[in-house]
Amino acid sequence: MPSRILIISDQSVARGGAEAMAVASAIALARAGNMVSFFCGDEGESPALREAGVEVVAVCGAHVRQSPRAAALFNGLYFARSRRILAGWIAAHDDSRVIYHVHSWSKILSPSIFDALTTVQHRVVIHAHDFFIICPNGGFTNYQTHEGCDLAPMSGACLRSNCDKRSYAEKLWRVGRQRIRAHYFDTATAPASYLLVHRGMLNFFLAAGVRPQRLQVLHNPVAAPALARTPAERNDTICFIGRLDPEKGALDAARAAREAGVKLRIIGDGIERAAITMANPNAEITGWCTPDEVNTQLATARLLVVPSRWRETFGMAVVEALRMGIPVLISDTALIARDVVEFHAGLAIDTKNIPLFATVLSRLASDDAAIKSMSEHAMQAAASLALRKDEWRDALLAHYRAVLGE
Question: Of 220, 298, 173, which is closest to residue 16 (Cα–Cα)?
């Protein structure tokens, strides 16, 4: 067994799937009797971590989007404070049985953490919640054309592609960040291991040169199935859960819901909040909610919409809805979309096509039989697409033991 586990995450307060899984893993592992520390880029304000007995090591940095431009430019490429604090922790605590589990690094911590991890790469586990470790923009998506991208990452064609959601200049900055990361941590040769949240990610990592023996698929955990199916066919509210950022597609949902004349409840917050309110004044925006509050909101939902504009890898909101019997209408670019359709638990469409999106919402708003059928299949789908929390924890420990050669 590991002597200690260091969880590495940009944030200690969950505002996305990667951070939520990082915090959940630290708490679950600590409660199982393991010595766990949590290295984070923010101020380490999570009371749940401290209540679980997890040591929090905080860099006290700022998100690149919330920093002055010059600071964001340089710290995003190499945040020296992250490297210094992490290197200090390693010098003080490392032994041959310490595991370093990286969940996220691109928002605050920067590639500098890989500089600090150079000497312990054989005990590093990269949890790929997205594609940032191999793709400059993290999504294998061209955000200018809103199409999937199949270019080899960091190839000449990739470098020429204006795929960034903001500008080509920012794409070049992201390329520079990848080159710095690769200088300290080459995904093709580094002896680290990778946990992928969906099997659909495998081919992308193989194409990026990651050796297959270093790849393992590990589905995210979900709470125990609901005791009874939510009768979604009796509800009339469409729900969206997540950050209100362009790649999440909440604005598309708002426009489609207004055109369809259906009720929309948005659980989350972000930079598109004002634009969403302008596009659909009737849309309810709750802001961020606790997991229990989300479950309460989902209990009144007819349908969850997941209109992501990038290759959504897993989508915790999807399985959380399915386990309660809430059908899902999902973007056909999401990796988990095929699973939803195969289990007859929802539909996958081009959610960027607002007239089509609105037409499907309008139809499902009145088709109780279709909603009931998908709802009845949803709970079975959730059981197949996600692990129970104890199974997930045990799978993590088994992976750590394999890394240590036990």
Answer: 220
Above pLDDT 90, what percent of the chain? 83
Pick from 129, 298, 292, 308: nearest CA to 219? 129
Q: Which of 377, 398, 395, 376 lies closest to 387 in space, CA to CA?
A: 395
Domain that holds residue 34: 4-220+388-403
The total number of residues written for the chain in this structure: 406
Place of tokens 């951070």: 19
Q: How far apart (Å, rounded) are the C-alpha atoms in residues 130 and 19?
A: 12
Q: What's the pLDDT tens digit per position in 323-375?
A: 999 999 999 999 999 999 999 999 999 999 999 999 999 999 999 999 999 99
Neighbours of 193 (CB within 10 A): 22
108: helix, coil or strand? Answer: coil
Q: Tokens 């630290």 label which residue? A: 26
Are 398 and 279 in the same domain?
Answer: no
Q: Is there a single domain that holds both residue 200 and residue 283? A: no
Q: Which two tokens stand for residue 146?
A: 């809103």
**Longest CA pairwise span in the chain (Å):** 62
- 207 and 279 fall within a common domain: no
Contact 55, 37 (CB under 8 A): yes
Instruction: Give yes or no for residue 225 having a pLDDT over 70.
Output: no
- Residue 25, both tokens: 């893993």
Task: Count how many domains the chain has.
Answer: 2
Per-residue pLDDT tens digits for 257-289:
999 999 999 999 999 999 999 999 999 999 998
Answer yes or no: do 198 and 260 share one domain. no
Rounded CA-CA distance 190/317 in Å is 33
Are residues 248 and 374 both part of a single domain? yes
| Residues 27 and 176 grouped into a single domain | yes
Residue 272 vs residues 175, 176, 182, 269, 318: alpha-carbon distances, Å: 26, 28, 33, 8, 21
Pairing status of strand 237-241 against strand 301-306: parallel
Q: Give the residue carrying structure tokens 């600071």.
A: 71
Q: Between the CA of residue 320 and those of 17, 224, 342, what are the distances in Å?
A: 12, 10, 18
Residues 396 and 336 in one domain: no
pTM: 0.90
Q: Same domain, yes or no, for 268 and 156?
A: no
Two structure tokens written together for 405 = 């050669």
